[in-house]
Amino acid sequence: MMRIKLSDVNNTSGRRYEFAFDIPAGKFDFPTNNYRIDGMIKVGGIAENTGAGYHLQGSVKCRRHFVCDRCLEEVTENQVHNFDEIYAKKSIENQKDVNIFSGDFIDITDLIHDIVIVGQPIINLCRPDCKGLCPKCGTNLNKHRCSCDNTVIDPRLMVLKKLLEKD
Ligand SMILES: [Zn+2]
Ligand SMILES: [Zn+2]
User: Fold this and answer.
1) Residue 139 C-alpha to ligand 1 middle, in angstroms?
2) pLDDT computed for residue 161 by the predictor
3) Which of 57, 128, 138, 139 could covalently link to 146 via disulfide, CB atoms 3.0 to 4.6 Å apart?
4) Residue 145 phi/psi, 5° resolution?
């Protein structure tokens, strides 16, 4: 549980309070189908009493393992995800996206869970320009070159190429 006790920030508007949590990733219900988050989830930030509510800013650090979709290499990646959230006991006028809470503490467990999941890319790549595997011989093109001809020809030009080959 990641709970920020409000007795620490309650007293005065403008009061700031630093928070930090270290929780094992296994305590969260993260998806495991195409990546795995393990190790410690480290959360740190500042809660500020704004008078109308609480402004929470901070970051989540985690470690992700995955297999690159293009070259099939196993990758371990350290990630940092930032957050910036408003919490209040009731909605604040002219302010959207306020997280409503009750009680003497703010529980950010679900927030942290969601931030980590939303922060994951749709495709898993070892690097943005991963060259992948050669479709003919399977060579990892990030590491080696192969001698296969993988030139992709525009289908419209393909017609032309065939015509030329007839001669
Ligand atoms: Zn790759
Ligand atoms: Zn090849």
Assistant:
1) 12
2) 72
3) 139
4) -105, 150
Task: Kindly identify the ligand whose nearest atom is closest to the C-alpha of 73.
Answer: 1
Q: Give the global pTM.
A: 0.79
Q: Give me the helices (H) in the chain, please.
A: 109-118, 155-166
109-120 average pLDDT score: 94
Q: How far, in Å, from the CA of 164 to the mean position of ligand 2?
A: 26
Band of the pLDDT at 118, cuts 50, 70, 90?
Answer: very high
Q: From the CA of 73, how far away is ligand 1's center (Å)?
A: 6
Q: Distance between terminal CA atoms of the chain? A: 75
Please tell me the distance between residue 27's alpha carbon and the centre of ligand 2 in angstroms: 44
- Please tell me the predicted confidence (pLDDT) of residue 11: 62
Q: Which ligand is nearest to the CA of 129?
A: 1
Residue 41 CA to residue 20 CA, distance in Å, equals 11
Least confident of 23-27, 35-39, 43-47, 146-150: 146-150
Measured in degrees and rounded to the nearest 5, phi and psi for residue 13 equal -65, 140
Is residue 15 within 8 A of residue 53, CB to CB? The reply is no
Residue 130: DSSP 8-state:
-
Residues forming a β-bridge with 63: 38, 78
